[in-house]
Design brief:
The complex is a heterodimer of chains A (468) and B (303). Chain A contains 20 helices and six strands. With 468 residues, chain A is mainly α. In chain A, the strands form two sheets. In chain A, strands 1-2-3 form a three-stranded antiparallel β-sheet. With 303 residues, chain B is of the alpha+beta class. Helices cover 34% and strands 13% of the residues of chain B. Chain B has eleven helices and five strands. Chain B has a five-stranded antiparallel β-sheet, covered by helices on one side. In chain B, a hairpin with a 3-residue loop joins β4 and β5. In chain B, α6 runs antiparallel to α9 and α8 packs across α9. In chain B, 25% of the residues are buried. The chains are: A mainly alpha (468), B alpha+beta (303). Chains A and B meet through β4, α10, α17, α18 and α19 of A and α1, α2, α3 and β4 of B.
Chain lengths: 468, 303
């Protein structure tokens, strides 16, 4: 016990003493960083150890590498092999680059900005200036991590809780401390194009999670949040075009596809002052979804009941039966894995599976006596999600409004309805004005189609029943 | 699919735009004429479209209530959206303003009673249309128990009068029978003013549920009350007026009843949106006497 404490103390002291005021680790005096680089730097090979010979050879030779890097004609493999051919004793410094003043943290947009500035300052000669190179080195992630895993114990400790994902890393040469390489590890995203669109949106973090009821409410317009156009003061809007029976709408949408009728685009031009919020409603992808996916909605499509266990299970196939052993897994790990799976499946949906499930649990809590109403509200809510109306800011409003619409369709009235609205406000922490305003917006977003086929409702209903 | 696209001259977006350019979908397009009625949530006006000179019914629904949008409006809109039929009122448009929602319906100048009263001088090819779906519900998962306080008393079936809360579409077939009779005779079949009285009136014709009268004697009673109905019509009527809900004829089976045979086979092939008068040979006749043509008029009301 005591020894442990002592060791930890020692480690802490050595850690603190290794932090130098000019930003470079004391143990690497030979690795002085450029003065203009204000970023926090963590060098490789902490603790003053020389990199062992067996370490993966990530090597930089300034004299010939700059030219190599500039030549975008070189194939990835050729470049990589050039790196690996060099002297093993050379040094590598992995520098997670992070602008501390940026409170938004890992927002791509913010980082992009700092990265540009940094690149200009540090790399006037324009090393790796094109996107191609960036993409190329993001594919060499494994190389970096091997370098980090063997000898950069300190690095890993220091960056605990920080992931390389979405960060900008800088490698510098051993002797002249010239930055050799800047690269980012970006999570793979099929819809990479969207990131750019997202990056220009400021996120309204404060509206999520527990928040004071009265805060920010005045600026919340459910219509805007859903990305639907709405008549301004005194202005009228007609929904005549939504009155086609749903099966006809589907056909019409397919027919209109080349015309690129884009409801979201309308929103963008609608009010430039609120574009920030509009942009957070999904980009172009959503209207492509709209034609096909609303008709293709299936009850277990989003919240797949099979998606409860991750890879933490062993499936054993015997001649006459199959059995599986589900290993213990930390709840947080499982949640992360399931959310990742869900995101892979629905990359455009701005909601995690765990959030969807917790919202559905809350909806059920509100109306636990009338499971049919809850089942209907699940259909509405999930349809909104599939059509990409739901985002972080409006998800609770959408859930609440779906529930109230379902209740109204299912003959809940009078005191029961009043009670339900009050309970929705309380459980989902919404304010009534907003909730009721989003009710109609959600009705429009659902194109007034509350009468959904029984086959879409029943699976939800059976699941609710079996979970009782 | 793509080939069809290119042939289609107008996309939905551009069609919508051109329609809004000519003023479709704006309240100022409609002139309010008379107030037709007022309810708790809605006021109905007779209106006229300045574009087409067509009469419309404007149902103005106030939105600012403690409980949000009225559930009748929500239900009516979401039901009518799915319904396109020559015998169902058309919802042309929904206009949303800051505080209210206006449903623009096609204008129906008479209710069924007025329509029947005027039948003597009626020569038009007007269809009977169903309207006011505020209290209508869609057939859905049969798990919810409903209230038994449904349907206008005169048209409420005996099982519901006796307290049944498990019902489905058969609940309406009893009412169809009552209205069929009423259209033929001009007076209601069971005009009770209380549940008990309503049941008594039913028992008088059909006998007690435990000891129902034989079909022949029920037919005789009905025939004596509605001399204009002949044997086939009475037979259809008794199919509607079955005590047991499951025994009542369904709408689609009812349409195949021998009573409708004179309309010819084409009526069964009619598209939903086509009027029955588009079938050659079917038309209204001004003659109120018992004849084939006046029977046709009645039929069109049931379809």
């Amino acid at each position: 016990m005591k020894k442990n404490k002592y060791n930890r103390r020692l480690a802490a002291i050595s850690f603190l003493s290794n932090i130098s005021l000019d930003g470079s680790p004391r143990s690497f005096k030979e690795l002085k960083t450029q003065g203009e680089c204000k970023s926090q730097r963590i060098s490789s090979g902490g603790g003053g150890e020389q990199p062992p010979k067996s370490a993966p050879p990530v090597v930089f030779n300034v004299s010939n590498n700059s030219s190599t890097l500039n030549s975008s004609n070189e194939s990835h493999f050729a470049l990589l092999s050039k790196f690996l051919e060099h002297d093993v004793s050379a040094n590598c410094s992995v520098t997670p680059f992070r602008e501390r003043t940026s409170t938004v943290g890992s927002e791509y947009g913010q980082e992009k900005f700092t990265a540009l500035g940094y690149r200009k300052r540090v790399l006037p000669q324009g090393l790796l200036s094109d996107e191609k190179a960036l993409g190329m080195f993001s594919s060499s992630e494994s190389m970096v991590s091997t370098a980090g895993s063997k000898k950069e114990v300190t690095l890993l400790k220091l960056t605990k809780g920080q992931k390389l994902k979405g960060q900008r890393l800088v490698m510098v040469s051993q002797t002249k401390k010239i930055p050799m390489l800047i690269f980012s590890v970006l999570p793979y995203n099929k819809f990479r194009g969207d990131i750019r669109t997202m990056s220009c949106t400021g996120r309204r973090r404060n509206t999520s999670g527990p928040r004071p009821l009265s805060a920010i409410n005045d600026t919340l317009d459910p219509w805007t949040l859903l990305g639907i156009e709405k008549g301004q003061d005194g202005q009228e809007i007609s929904y005549g075009q939504l009155l086609a029976p749903s099966r006809i709408i589907r056909a019409a949408d397919i027919v209109d596809a080349p015309a690129k009728h884009n409801p979201v685009a309308r929103c963008f031009s609608y009010d430039s002052a609120t574009q920030r919020v509009f942009a957070s409603s999904p980009p172009v992808v959503c209207c492509e979804n709209k034609s096909g996916e609303c008709s293709a909605y299936e009850a277990n499509m989003l919240d797949d009941p099979e998606l409860i266990a991750g890879k933490h299970k062993t499936l054993m196939t015997f001649s006459s039966y199959i059995t599986s052993v589900i290993h213990y897994v930390r709840a947080a790990d499982l949640k992360k894995e399931l959310n990742d799976k869900f995101r892979d499946k629905f990359p455009t949906i701005q909601l995690t599976l765990s959030k969807l499930r917790s919202l559905k649990r809350e909806m059920r809590k509100i109306s636990n006596t009338d499971l049919l109403t809850v089942a209907y509200s699940f259909v509405y809510f999930e349809k909104l999600i599939v059509r990409n109306y739901v985002n972080k800011e409006n998800r609770k409003l959408c859930a609440g409004a779906s529930l109230i619409l379902a209740a109204k369709l299912n003959d809940i009235k009078g005191d029961h309805l009043k009670h339900l609205i009050e309970k929705t406000e309380a459980v989902l922490r919404l304010n009534r004005r907003e909730l009721l305003a989003s009710e109609f917006a959600v009705l429009v977003a659902l194109e007034f189609g509350l009468h959904v086929p029984t086959c879409q409702v029943l699976p939800h209903y059976h699941r609710l029943l079996s979970e009782t | 699919m793509r080939i069809i696209d290119e042939q289609k001259p107008l996309s939905r977006a551009s069609r919508r735009q051109s329609m809004s350019e000519i003023g479709f979908g704006r309240m100022e397009t409609y002139t309010k004429l008379d107030k037709l009625g007022q309810g708790t949530y809605a006021t109905v006006f007779k209106g006229k479209s300045r574009l087409t000179d067509n009469l419309v019914a404007l149902k103005e629904i106030r939105l600012e209530h403690e409980e949000g949008a009225p559930c009748t409006a929500i239900r009516e809109v979401s039901l009518l959206k799915e319904l396109r039929h020559a015998n169902i009122v058309t919802l042309h448009d929904i206009v949303h303003t800051e505080r209210s929602l206006t449903l623009v319906f096609e204008y129906l100048d008479k209710d069924l009673k007025q329509y029947m009263d005027d039948r003597g001088n009626m020569l038009s090819m007007n269809n009977v249309k169903l309207a006011d779906f505020g209290l209508a519900r869609a057939k859905s998962v049969p798990t919810k128990t409903y209230s038994n306080e449904v349907v206008t008393l005169w048209y409420r079936p005996p099982d519901v009068l006796l307290g049944s809360t498990e019902y489905s579409t058969q609940i309406d077939m009893w009412g169809v029978g009552c209205i069929f009779f009423e259209m033929a005779c001009g007076r209601p079949l069971f005009p009770g003013s209380t549940v008990d009285e309503e049941l008594c009136l039913i028992f008088r014709v059909l006998g007690c549920p435990e000891t129902p009268l034989p079909v022949a004697s029920v037919s005789d009673t009905l025939l004596s009350r509605a001399p204009r109905l002949h044997q086939d019509a009475i037979s259809l009527l008794t199919c509607f007026l079955a005590y047991e809900a499951k025994a009542r004829v369904s709408a689609s089976d009812g349409m195949r009843h021998i009573y409708f045979k004179s309309l010819g086979p084409e009526v069964h092939l009619l598209p939903d949106v086509a009027s029955i008068f588009s079938v050659p040979g079917i038309q209204l006749s001004p003659d109120p006497s018992i004849s084939k043509s006046s029977k046709n008029r009645r039929l069109s009301m049931l379809l």
